[in-house]
Amino acid sequence: MAASTGPVLAVGAISFANGWVLNKQPPDFKVLLGTAIAAGGLALFEHVSRELAVGIAWIALVTVIFTRQKGKPSPAENLLKVSGF
Question: Which of 1, 7, 30, 59 is deepest in the core (most CB within 10 A)?
Fold first, then answer.
């Protein structure tokens, strides 16, 4: 498995779960398709520049944690709301 695959799969899982479970929207399977394409693309890009591909994957993970999607609360906001902080 490529080094960028783990963070990219986490991006997809967090995005999918945040929309479906925490924001109570219908499941958006386009997120899963986009995740698969991004993981494959970054795995191929690792043959050109491993450090850059892994860096892009980690930046995407941090971004998806703190960014609102479709005007709904971000995963970090939902985590704070669920935990009571």
Answer: 7
φ, ψ (nearest 5 deg) of residue 6:
-60, -55
Burial class (CB in 10 A: 0-12, 13-18, 19+), 58: middle
The yes-or-no verdict on residue 85 having pLDDT over 90 is no
Note if the pTM is more than 0.70: yes
AA letter at 2 = A
Specify the amino acid at residue 15: S
Which alpha helices (DSSP H) does 22-74 contain, by range?
Answer: 29-45, 50-66
From CA 64, how far away is CA 67, in angstroms rounded? 5
